[in-house]
């Protein structure tokens, strides 16, 4: 630091120059050039509000307006005699008040009244007269104004009458208007003429002041309300609520605020389900706070398009299955996607999975296979539509569950060949099922939707089921086989991370902590602000964070009444002509990977590398093992105690399974079985 004495003025004063560390880094300020202006890509605000662009939202708005308007009109109509009586009392009082106010103004009585009174009290006639002269002078001019205004009004009405001939109803309307204005002027300040239609005042407006004070009160490192800035367009209406996008100061991240949603709601004096904070789009310190006009529990949900009597879907087209916090429908294409729904008990997983199943069932080309390992029959009503259906937590249900997975694997194998043929014929240019191929009768490539609810039960009960499911998910995606898994225990045993990784669309409903959250949504999701921990089981049932759709964010499953649900299932039955698409799975002899691994070892081999084992297993039973990788074999044999050891191949050592390890594992299993 350089200190320079400033002798000319004062020994005590110094100029302190900042140290120069490195060269100039800040760009020089310059005015915007033409190129800057024409290349601006700022998001433009839509001309037509979002609510008017979406047909469902338009219909919902129209329905609401008609119902609200109708109710208000009837409410006031029934009270009209009371209103008329009030008007009769207040109108003369209002007319008197208005008249006297004009008269007082015209005589200038108010302006120096106190001064004149003081002069009178002090017995000071000179001052009083001087003040009164001033008043009288002003009063003259004011009477002129009043006179001219009255004459102008009379002339105006007279001319209007002569020129266009105001009908009687016009005079009546003018008279009613004058009487109502007079009544309003004559009513006591705290007594409105009309009664309140709604009992509780709706939340009317979110203001910058409310937001600033609430955020400071959270104690997340924002000390002053002024530290919070609102980028344009500031707080504005967005759907049925208000959106406040704001920047937190310094290094405070939005996730710190998301974790305190309860406190934020308390500070805003609103119910928690009315307050929806999200990380903003520009940087991690930006918050998008959406506050509904009403709590979501009271707001209801827009009508689900799939509940219409004529609803029919195509899994190749986007179809709605949930709504976001601003009541906008969220849609997805089912084809070439897989779905994972996770959450704690009571978070609404089964209903959420059902919304996806609904899209599938209303497409009459889709085969359905449903297995529910909760055992309560959540999907019992769709059994007649399914080619395979299982319910329960018993051996029978688990066997059917693993048969479905084995069937899917074998089907992938069959479909792979069919696709190859189709490709040769030029019908599958990308080597994938196309909508045309899927719809073609006899192509054997119709879409299949497999729903496995509480799938962790199956994975825990049947060793190897998780690995097989992973292979089926990976292979089936391009071949028209869609998996939807729902689970309540997202940990690495009940939901292997490899499965999560290959699933495109994940929906995390209420979970307890960050670990479960990230198990479902992916590592780092919590830190990026995708926090399903804010939802409470039961209260926020159906709400979750959804990734893998157009815009990740909050999503609430559609939740039709039991009657509507029954109507949807009936409609799906009608569309399918009561015929079940596809065949039930055959009881497949479950493959025993340990025994198979021992079988594929060649005589004299002391072991085989994992990759070699994977290759040989796929040759042994292609319908089950096609697509299996070295890692999958290693992971599948680990529970039997088969360690990954060095295996000699030529002159080098590779990791794999030794024959002794496989034999020992088999012996252990036999001893345990006894
Ligand atoms: N979208 C929704 N809106 C409102 N309530 C819902 C919604 N989805 C589910 N619920 C309610 O939540 C309750 C639990 O739903 P569901 O059975 O799907 O939960 P789950 O997570 O599968 O629970 P569990 O694991 O205990 O079976 C249901 O009884 C239902 O009343």
UniProtKB/TrEMBL annotation:
Binding site for ATP: 343-350
Transmembrane segment boundaries: 141-160
Name the UniProt record assigns to this protein: FtsK/SpoIIIE domain-containing protein
Residue ranges of domain FtsK in the record: 327-518
Family annotation (Pfam families): FtsK_SpoIIIE
Keyword Signal: no
Record carries keyword Ribosomal protein: no
Superkingdom of this protein's organism: Bacteria
Gene3D superfamilies on file: P-loop containing nucleotide triphosphate hydrolases
Higher taxonomy: Bacteria, Bacillati, Actinomycetota, Actinomycetes, Micromonosporales
Species name: Micromonospora parva
Keyword annotations: ATP-binding, Membrane, Nucleotide-binding, Transmembrane, Transmembrane helix
């Amino acid at each position: 630091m350089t200190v320079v004495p400033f002798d000319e003025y004062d020994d005590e004063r110094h100029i302190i120059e900042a140290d120069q560390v490195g060269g100039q880094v800040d760009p020089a300020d310059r005015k915007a050039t033409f190129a800057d202006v024409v290349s601006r890509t700022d998001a433009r605000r839509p001309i037509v509000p979002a609510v008017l662009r979406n047909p469902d939202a338009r219909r919902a708005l129209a329905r609401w307006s008609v119902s609200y308007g109708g109710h208000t009109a009837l409410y006031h109509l029934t009270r009209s005699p009371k209103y008329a009586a009030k008007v009769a009392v207040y109108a003369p009082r209002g007319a008197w008040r208005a008249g006297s106010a004009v008269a007082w103004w015209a005589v200038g009585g108010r302006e120096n009244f106190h001064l004149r009174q003081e002069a009178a009290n002090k017995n000071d006639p000179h001052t009083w007269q001087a003040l009164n002269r001033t008043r009288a002078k002003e009063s003259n001019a004011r009477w002129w104004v009043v006179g001219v205004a009255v004459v102008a009004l009379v002339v105006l009405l007279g001319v209007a009458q002569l020129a266009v001939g105001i009908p009687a109803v016009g005079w009546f309307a003018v008279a009613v208007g004058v009487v109502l204005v007079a009544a309003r002027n004559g009513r006591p300040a705290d007594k409105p003429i009309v009664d309140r239609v709604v009992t509780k005042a709706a939340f009317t407006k979110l203001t910058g002041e409310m937001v600033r004070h609430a955020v400071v009160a959270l104690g997340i490192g924002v000390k002053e309300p002024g530290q919070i800035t609102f980028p344009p367009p500031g707080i504005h209406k967005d759907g049925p609520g208000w959106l406040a996008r704001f920047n937190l100061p310094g290094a405070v991240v939005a996730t710190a605020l998301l974790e305190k949603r309860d406190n934020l709601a308390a500070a805003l004096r609103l119910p928690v389900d009315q307050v929806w904070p999200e990380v903003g789009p520009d940087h991690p310190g930006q918050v998008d706070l959406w506050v509904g006009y009403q709590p979501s529990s009271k707001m209801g949900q827009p009508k689900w398009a799939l509940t219409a009597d004529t609803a029919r879907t195509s899994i190749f087209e986007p179809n709605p299955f949930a709504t976001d916090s601003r009541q906008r429908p969220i849609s997805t294409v089912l084809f070439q996607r897989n779905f994972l729904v996770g959450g704690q008990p009571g978070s609404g997983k089964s209903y959420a999975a059902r919304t996806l199943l609904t899209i599938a069932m209303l497409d009459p080309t889709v085969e359905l296979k449903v297995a529910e390992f909760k055992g309560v029959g959540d999907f019992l009503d769709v059994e007649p539509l399914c080619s395979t259906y299982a319910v329960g937590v018993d051996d029978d249900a688990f066997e059917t569950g693993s048969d479905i997975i084995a069937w899917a694997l074998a089907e992938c194998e069959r479909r792979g060949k069919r696709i190859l043929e189709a490709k040769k014929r030029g019908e599958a240019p990308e080597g994938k099922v196309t909508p045309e191929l899927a719809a073609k009768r006899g192509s054997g490539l119709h879409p299949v939707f497999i729903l496995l609810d509480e799938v962790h039960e199956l994975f825990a009960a049947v060793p190897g089921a998780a690995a097989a499911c992973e292979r089926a998910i990976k292979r089936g995606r391009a071949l028209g086989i869609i998996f939807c898994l729902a689970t309540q225990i997202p940990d690495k045993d009940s939901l292997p991370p490899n499965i999560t990784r290959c699933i495109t669309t994940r929906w995390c409903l209420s979970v307890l902590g960050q670990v479960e959250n990230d198990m479902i949504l992916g590592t780092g999701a919590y830190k990026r602000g995708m926090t399903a921990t804010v939802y409470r089981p039961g209260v926020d049932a159906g709400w979750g964070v959804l990734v893998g759709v157009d815009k990740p964010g909050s999503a609430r499953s559609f939740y039709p009444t039991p009657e509507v649900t029954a109507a949807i299932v009936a409609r799906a039955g009608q569309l399918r002509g009561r015929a079940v698409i596809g065949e039930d799975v055959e009881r497949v002899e479950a493959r025993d990977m340990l025994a198979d691994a021992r079988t594929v070892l060649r005589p004299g081999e002391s072991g085989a590398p994992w990759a070699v084992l994977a290759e040989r297993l796929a040759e042994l039973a292609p319908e089950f093992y096609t697509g299996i990788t070295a890692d999958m074999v290693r992971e599948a044999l680990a529970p039997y105690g088969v360690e990954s050891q060095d295996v000699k191949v030529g002159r080098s050592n590779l990791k794999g399974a030794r024959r002794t390890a496989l034999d020992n594992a088999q012996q252990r299993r036999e001893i345990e079985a006894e």
